[in-house]
Specification:
329 residues, 10 helices, 11 strands, 5-stranded mixed β-sheet, single chain, alpha+beta
Length: 329
C-alpha cells in the first residue's frame, strides 16, 4: 500500500512538473479562472506569455473579477462560454480576436476546460490560447495576391480578346479602304447561299468597276489614285442600305451583296449608286464614273456561277459605253 501511494505521488509530481514547465515556458497564453460562491468569475492566474501579449505586469490580474476588467460586451461573450463549459462539463474550443495596439487585429484559437471537484467545492476554468495571426496575415496576403492576379488575368484576357478581335478585323478588312476584303465577301456569299438553299431567301449581287481608273493612276499618280479609291469607298458605304454587305473585290472593283433583294430591286439600287458616283466631285480629279454588273442568286447557282454572271454583266456595261448598269437574270 505504501509502495502504491509512492508511485501515485511520483506520477502526480511528474505531471505537476510538466504542467509547470508548460505554464512557464510555452508561447501559448494560459489562464485559470475560478467561479466563487457569489457566481463571479475571478482571474486566478495568468502565465507569462499571456501577460506579455496583453502588456500586463506579473500577477496583475490575479484575484480580479472579470466584470471589473472587461467591457460589458466582451464580459458577456466570455462568461457565457465559461458557463457553457461548466454546465456541459467538457472542453469548448473557439476562435477569438482582439485589437491590442489600436490598429492591428490579432487572432487566437482558444480551448477552455472545466475543472470541477464537488467534494472540494472547486469550480474553475483552465484555458489555453494559441495565436494564429500570422496564418491569417498570410491568408489575407494570399487572397490579395490572388485578387490582384485574377484582376491582371481578367485585364490580360480582355486585352487578348481585343487584340484577337482586331486581328480578326484586320484579316477580313481591306487595308486601304477599311471595307470588307475578298476573304470576308466569299464568307458572306457562302452564308447567303446556305440561307437560300434552306429558306429560299433571295439575294442580289452587284460588281462595280471604276471606269478608266488606270488613267487616274497614270495621270495623277498612285497616291491620288488611293485617295480616289478611299473617297469612292466612303461614297458607296454612305449610299448602300444598312442590310447590304459592301467590300473591295480587288483593284478598282467593289462588290455589294444585297440580302432579300431580287434582280429588280438590285438594279434600282445600282442605278441610284451610279447616279451618285457620276454626280460626285472627287478631290484632285473632279468627275469619274463607274460601270455595274448585276444579277441575283437562283436555283442550281454556286458561288462561282453567280460571280461569273455578274462579271459578264459588268463586261456588257463596259462594252455599252461605261457609266451604266447591265443585268443578267
Amino acid at each position: 500500500m505504501v509502495e502504491h501511494d509512492y508511485i501515485h505521488d511520483s506520477v502526480i509530481t511528474g505531471e505537476l512538473l510538466l504542467f509547470r514547465t508548460l505554464w512557464n515556458d510555452s508561447d501559448d497564453n494560459m489562464f485559470i479562472v475560478s467561479l466563487d460562491n457569489n457566481g463571479d468569475f475571478i482571474s486566478e492566474s495568468s502565465n507569462k506569455s499571456l501577460e506579455k501579449t496583453f502588456g500586463l505586469r506579473e500577477n496583475q490580474l490575479d484575484g480580479q473579477k472579470l466584470k471589473d476588467l472587461l467591457d460589458e460586451e466582451t464580459f458577456t461573450t466570455i462568461t457565457n462560454r465559461y458557463k457553457e463549459c461548466l454546465q456541459r462539463n467538457r472542453p469548448i474550443s473557439y476562435d477569438e480576436s482582439a485589437i491590442l495596439d489600436g490598429i492591428h487585429e490579432r487572432f487566437w484559437s482558444t480551448t477552455i476546460l472545466p475543472v470541477i471537484d464537488k467534494k472540494s467545492n472547486i469550480c474553475k476554468i483552465f484555458g489555453i490560447s494559441r495565436e494564429f495571426t500570422k496564418i491569417i496575415t498570410i491568408q489575407n496576403e494570399l487572397n490579395l495576391l490572388n485578387a490582384t492576379l485574377e484582376k491582371k488575368v481578367q485585364e490580360r484576357t480582355k486585352d487578348l480578346k481585343i487584340a484577337l478581335h482586331e486581328m480578326k478585323e484586320l484579316s477580313i478588312t481591306d487595308k486601304l479602304t477599311g471595307l470588307y476584303n475578298r476573304l470576308k465577301l466569299d464568307e458572306v456569299l457562302s452564308s447567303k447561299i446556305k440561307l437560300f438553299e434552306r429558306y429560299d431567301e433571295a439575294f442580289g449581287l452587284i460588281i462595280i468597276d471604276i471606269d478608266l481608273f488606270k488613267s487616274v493612276n497614270d495621270t495623277y499618280g498612285h497616291i491620288v489614285g488611293d485617295k480616289v479609291l478611299l473617297e469612292f469607298s466612303t461614297l458607296l458605304k454612305n449610299s448602300v442600305r444598312e442590310t447590304d454587305v459592301l467590300g473591295r473585290w480587288g483593284g478598282e472593283e467593289f462588290l455589294v451583296i444585297c440580302p432579300k433583294s431580287n434582280l429588280q430591286g438590285t438594279k434600282v439600287l445600282s442605278e441610284s449608286l451610279r447616279i451618285k458616283i457620276a454626280s460626285y466631285e472627287f478631290s484632285d480629279i473632279g468627275k469619274l464614273t463607274a460601270s455595274f454588273g448585276v444579277t441575283e442568286f437562283k436555283n442550281d447557282d454556286t458561288l462561282q456561277s453567280i460571280i461569273n454572271r455578274s462579271d459578264i454583266a459588268l463586261y456588257q456595261a463596259k462594252n455599252s459605253g461605261r457609266n451604266c448598269v447591265e443585268s443578267i437574270a
